[in-house]
Specification:
- It is built from nine helices and five strands, in the order αββαβαααααββαα.
- The protein is α+β, with helices and mostly antiparallel strands.
- The chain has a single domain, classed as Glutaredoxin.
- It has a five-stranded mixed β-sheet, sandwiched between helices.
- Strand 4 and strand 5 form a beta hairpin.
- Helix 3 packs across helix 6 and helix 5 crosses helix 6.
- The longest helix has 20 residues.
- The chain is globular.
């Protein structure tokens, strides 16, 4: 009898517990998708957020200022990195450009100007020579930039970006990956601003799971 009453009490309390916790604000399959299998992160001790983008993408261009605002208040336990998506050979020059600027310790010098040159100034900057010309305009030593652009280090990073584009299972850009487990796009989240709301939700989810 006592066992029956105990089980009855537990059964009654379960709905109350679920109600107190409340339903999740954002749902897997609706607002974000699982990355299957999950992709290992660079630092398991932190929560990793990766943006995959392409300089030629107008949606990525419009997402950039939204992302920049989010980065101003990024939690200290979150590590953010940009990764150029590489869906096709035509995307490789922009991936090389980003990694070359990064190798020279001056990604900020190229990142926004390359977006602006393509989408605001309507310049066709899609190959090595046009990229080198822009690099010179924004203050890089062109010979140094060319050396970095053609370096084995950049070769390796571009190949890794190609594999990551595949392994994350993305089908468009911008896409944001949280901790190698979750994929968010504007079409899933609802808007570009909502991408980062879902990102914050998933960061908290990962933090609570640790």
């Amino acid at each position: 009898m006592k066992k029956f009453l105990y089980l009855l009490l537990v059964a009654c309390l379960l709905p109350l517990t679920a109600s107190a916790a409340g339903p999740e604000k954002y749902l897997e399959g609706t607002h974000y998708l699982l990355v299957t299998p999950a992709v290992p992160t660079a630092d398991p001790k932190s929560i990793e957020v990766v943006e995959l983008f392409w300089y030629g993408c107008p949606h990525c261009f419009h997402f950039e200022p939204v992302l920049a605002e989010w980065l101003k208040t990024k939690p200290a336990d979150v590590k953010f990195r940009r990764m150029p998506a590489v869906f096709a050979q035509q995307w490789v020059p922009h991936a090389r450009a980003m990694y070359a600027a990064e190798a020279l310790g001056a990604l900020d010098k190229l990142h926004r100007p390359l977006f602006d040159a393509i989408h605001t100034d309507k310049r066709r900057i899609y190959d090595e020579e046009s990229i080198l010309a822009l690099a010179g305009e924004v203050g890089f030593n062109v010979d140094e930039f060319r050396e970095a652009y053609d370096s084995p280090t950049v070769d390796g990073k571009v190949k890794m970006a190609m594999m990551a584009t595949r392994d994350y299972g993305i089908d468009g850009v911008p896409s944001v990956i949280v901790n190698g487990k979750y994929r968010i796009t504007a079409s899933l989240a609802g808007s570009q601003e909502d991408i980062l709301k879902v990102v914050d939700f998933l960061i908290a989810k990962e933090r609570n799971a640790k």
